Amino acid sequence: MLVVSCLLAGGAASRAQSPDPACFGAAARDPVKPCANPALKLSVVPSPLTARRQKNPPCLAVHRFVGKDLCEFGHPAEGSEGAIAVIGDSHASVWRVTLESAALEHKWHGLRFGHASCPMSLATRRIREPDRSHCDRWRRAVLRWLKDHPDVTTVFVAQLSGGSGVVTRKGEDPFEAEVNGYLDAWKAMPASVTRIYVIRDNPKTDSQTPACVEDAVKTGMQPGPACAVPKREVLDRDAAAVAARRLSSPRVRELDMTRFFCGKATCEPVIGGVLVYKDATHLTGLYARTLGPYLARLIDASG
């Protein structure tokens, strides 16, 4: 049967009342401690219908910043042992949920700067006006803010790979223009930002996945394997991740979580009983939350 939980993705009170079962969500893909729980074989939490309606777990809005919410998470500012910022488009807003674990573990006070369809790059996005111009203004304002707040020494950036692309000059390769846009943005960050973590974008899924998941459970099939999609079709090249590798700088580190979505050949939409995607490109808040300990581990291992 389709398992629908009242557990709120990322809700601390709900987690206290309903602790995660063994091997729940991303724990089922832990390479350090392999894990399987037969009881979760047909579990799908949340259901595809519920996931489409869910917003990300709350991030406490501090104030408006160039027309967008600036919110805080992690450890309170008072008594914290460092300040971090998460900057980018709607994918960065989802990864903020995952970063909660690392922020609490390290007593980091986190700030999230989010703007839909506007990753932290100096290449102009190929989106319609007035969003295009507003995106450029917002990114310049973020850079000024970082310069005025040297206490923020660590920045995490995340972004949709693929998408609408960027404005290019005649003869310019579109992907290279994206790569250079990210490199230029990191170069423009003040020296007080001593570490930039680039979160490689998650794989996508296709429009048929929600129906496939529901049908699989109804017929008693394991939805993850039954509805898996070819990795080569859903894991796009990520210009930011390419830029980080190309730069080969101790200041910029890539964080690649692909192993928590995909095997060698396929990527699954249900892992450890948790629905991975709320739509074609965005993670559910619940799966993002279960990724938290493993992203924290990767951050620590990166030095």
Summary of the model, kept short:
This protein is α/β, with parallel strands linked by helices and 303 residues long.
Describe the structure.
This protein folds into two domains: 57-201 and 236-257 and 285-303, Rossmann fold (3-Layer(aba) Sandwich); 206-235, no CATH class. Helix content is 35%, strand content 16%. Helix 3 (90-106) packs across helix 11 (292-301) and helix 5 (174-188) packs across helix 9. The model is unreliable at 1-17 (pLDDT under 50). With 303 residues, the protein is of the alpha/beta class. It has helices spanning 12-17, 48-53, 90-106, 131-148, 174-188, 209-218, 223-226, 231-234, 239-247, 285-290, 292-301; strands spanning 60-65, 68-74, 83-88, 109-114, 152-158, 195-199, 229-230, 252-255, 266-267, 270-271, 274-275. The chain is built from eleven helices and eleven strands. A seven-stranded mixed beta sheet has the order 1-2-4-3-5-6-8, with helices on both faces. Strands 7-9 form a two-stranded antiparallel sheet. The relative contact order is 0.18. Strand 5 (152-158), helix 5 and strand 6 (195-199) form a beta-alpha-beta unit.
